[in-house]
């Protein structure tokens, strides 16, 4: 042993200093991961699938966006609230087709605890700023038929 026994001890770094450096990085990663998980849950929900399907089969949607209507971005971000428990669905996301791109909005509410959802807004805003209502006054709620078909198949 060539070390001297009366040498100076090394300085210790405080554990709080290490925590102060790594905690913001950890919290940022947790926040980004949680937001990604919640958005994935919204993306794979039946509400988003139904509205996207209804847009694909809509004559107005085909006329404005063309064929092959799908999410605009590779990793779509669904903005808004989807709270079926409390009867509030208000969301929007980017869509694209072979002819153009746009932003689809959907808002539906449920009046009463056991009431049915009623679509209040279903619109498409094109890239040139036009806002097109996808629910005609003369046509019924397109989402009501799919709900009735689902109830009949049970």
UniProtKB/TrEMBL annotation:
Q: The organism sits in which domain of life?
A: Eukaryota
Q: Is NADP set as a keyword in this record?
A: no
Listed A to Z, the keywords are: Membrane, Transmembrane, Transmembrane helix
State a single Pfam family of this protein. Coa1
* InterPro entries noted in UniProt: Coa1 (IPR014807), Coa1_fungi (IPR042432)
Q: Does the keyword Transmembrane apply?
A: yes
Q: Where are the transmembrane segments?
A: 18-38
Q: What is this protein called?
A: DUF1783-domain-containing protein
Please report the organism this UniProt entry assigns to the protein: Lepraria finkii
UniProt lineage: Eukaryota, Fungi, Dikarya, Ascomycota, Pezizomycotina
């Amino acid at each position: 042993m060539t070390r001297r026994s009366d040498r100076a001890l090394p300085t210790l770094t405080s554990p709080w200093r290490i925590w102060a450096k790594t905690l913001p990085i950890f919290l940022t990663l947790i926040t980004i991961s949680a937001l990604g998980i919640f958005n994935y849950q919204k993306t794979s929900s039946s509400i988003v699938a139904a509205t996207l399907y209804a847009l694909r089969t809509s004559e107005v949607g085909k006329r404005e966006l063309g064929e092959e209507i799908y999410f605009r971005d590779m990793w779509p971000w669904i903005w808004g609230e989807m709270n079926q428990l409390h009867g509030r669905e208000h969301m929007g996301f980017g869509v694209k087709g072979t002819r153009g791109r746009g932003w689809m909005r959907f808002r539906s509410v449920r009046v009463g605890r056991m009431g049915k959802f009623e679509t209040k807004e279903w619109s498409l805003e094109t890239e040139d700023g036009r806002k097109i209502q996808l629910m005609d006054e003369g046509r019924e709620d397109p989402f009501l038929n799919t709900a009735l078909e689902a109830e009949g198949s049970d």
